[in-house]
Amino acid sequence: HGRVGRPPSGAGLMPGFFLDRLEGERALIREDAGHIVKTLRRGEGDRVFAFDGLGNRLECEIVRADRREVDLRVLSAVPAGTEPRVSVTLYQGLTKAPRMELVIQKCVELGIGAIVPVVFSRCEVRDLGTERLGRYRKIAREAAKQCGRAVIPRIGEAIPFSELLQAQECLICPYEEAEGYGLYRGLLDRAGRGRYGIVVGPEGGMTREEAHSLREAGGGIVTLGPRILRTETAGMAVLSAMLCVYGEME
């Protein structure tokens, strides 16, 4: 697949991996051990790049390696420079697995900070089991690794709509019945307010009552123009626009 964008300085296209453990100058990789040893054919004395999950990129030397574990010595650590300066959480209406998987993969690539599934009144899917949540988190990890991010965005457990109203972020809520208050104006009106939350309803959309409740809670109810976007498209569109407004795609 193609890659578009600038890699971090000095990173090139060399693959990076997320550490499973880091203690001082020693680190351990388990999940990607087989790929490192079998596919990349790296072994003792070779160097690899890894991410600590906190935003740093580490150059490491392999001390010991097999298909189950790769033991590393950390040689250097620098900020990866791949995380957006603006913190954004996507509150996504819980939907069927293929759509949720697409949302997670693409929003992680774009730079989302966290994704929290929300159970709206019109959700066809109303429960997120442990197995599916684990799969969603694995998708987030793989997407973060593929696009060179140094942090794995959090995929939260599903919350009821009432809990969403207690969110501390500055909320932006695209809604097909919003009147005369566009996304661009909504983003500018809320510029500089710190952390943000994008609220996207499920396949059937938010009800008027839910939109009203979000507005009463301080959310910005905005239109995305004359075209109605599907639930899996709306969050990506708003996130992309937000990153552009904040200069994250220059």
Description:
This protein has seven helices and 13 strands. It is of the alpha/beta class. The strands form two sheets. Strands 7, 8, 9, 10, 11, 12 and 13 form a seven-stranded parallel sheet that branches. It has a six-stranded mixed sheet with strand order 1-4-5-6-3-2. A hairpin with a 4-residue loop joins strand 4 (47-51) and strand 5 (56-65). Residues 7-13 have low confidence and may be disordered.
**Stretches with pLDDT under 50, minimum 5 residues:** 7-13
Mean pLDDT: 89
Shape designation:
elongated
- Indicate the structural class: alpha/beta
End-to-end Cα distance, whole Å, is 23 Å
Q: Would you list the SSEs in sequence order as H and E?
A: EEEHEEEEHEHEEHEHEHEH
Proportion of residues in β-strands: 25-35%
Q: How would a crystallographer describe the biggest sheet?
A: 7 strands, parallel
How big is the Rg? 20 Å
Tally of DSSP β-strands? 13
**How many H/I helical runs?**
7
- The percent range for helix content is 25-40%
Keywords:
about 250 residues; alpha/beta; 6-stranded mixed sheet; elongated; single chain; 7-stranded parallel sheet
How is the secondary structure organized here?
Blueprint: E1 16-18, E2 21-23, E3 26-29, H1 33-39, E4 47-51, E5 56-65, E6 70-79, E7 88-93, H2 97-110, E8 114-119, H3 130-146, E9 154-155, E10 159-160, H4 161-164, E11 170-174, H5 183-189, E12 196-200, H6 208-216, E13 220-222, H7 231-245
Helix pairs in contact: 2-3, 2-7, 5-7
